[in-house]
Design a protein that fits this description.
19% strand; alpha/beta; two-stranded parallel sheet; globular; 15 strands; 39% helix; 320 residues; 7-stranded parallel beta sheet; 10 helices
Length: 320
Amino acid sequence: MIHHFITGVAGFIGSHLAERLIAEGHRVSGVDDFSLGRIENIAAVHGHGRFFFVRGDVSDTAQVTRILQDATEWGAKPDVVWHMAANSDIAAGVADATVDFRKTLQTTFATLQASKTAGVRRFALASTSAVYGERHDVMTEDSGPLLPISNYGAAKLASEALVSAAAETFLERIWIFRFPNVIGSRMTHGALYDFRNRLRQGSESLSVLGDGTQTKPYLHVSELVDAIRWIASNAEDRRNVYNIGPEGPGTKVSLLAEKIIARISPGTAIVYSGGDRGWVGDVPRFTYSTRKLAALGWGPKLTSDEAVLRAIEEIAGDVG
């Protein structure tokens, strides 16, 4: 039985990961400050004998150190830390740069320091395709230089650097996962989430940033969890960096809007703001290579469009 410690455990991805690990028979401890996470997200595992939860702020080194000590006393030293806690709203980080600094970079620094104190030797980081910036070539794990155009991407790239440096001093293995747009139940941000909330207000039209041609790869959260578990079980280098995403070019924003309107509020008009991107720091389209992950033996079952349709069905009935 492996002991997994998850930061952001009550968040969108962290809660799904916790459920998967418990189902696999492992011991899971975790922390969340509920800035984005919700107690309802961990309802399925809360109270389980192999699950331990502490509410806390992992941007505070002393606090996360104490929490890791509590987790160790509960169920032995964690074998691996999954650092999922971060700001996940690019636009929020553009409006206030301190959000990405504190919620993303500082949480990574603090969690690494606490992991060193606790003697943890393996560390997994949730990163993002935003570290690549705006490129016109196929983005592979070896692409460079990496020049992000958002504070979100910059803080994630700096986090990758901190984790890589820690692999030279006290970590024996690290995994860095570069996520695409992840969607599904419990999501807390993003175009689908925003569209659903606006449509529930009963407006006569749906305002959509950009011209609708922005094209992004979308991956369902269940397949993302499949992928990161596969990578952590099969990638055995000291430093392991993987793009994760669906095959194909991705899904246009216009399709997202059309499909969620058809599901929630048929007949609602779409009003595009114009321009080739939605906000400052938005990368309107990119080509994302997942060949390295395919060579490791994993590939998604859903296309980007299929993931979008599945997520719409799930979030249409969500109350939050």
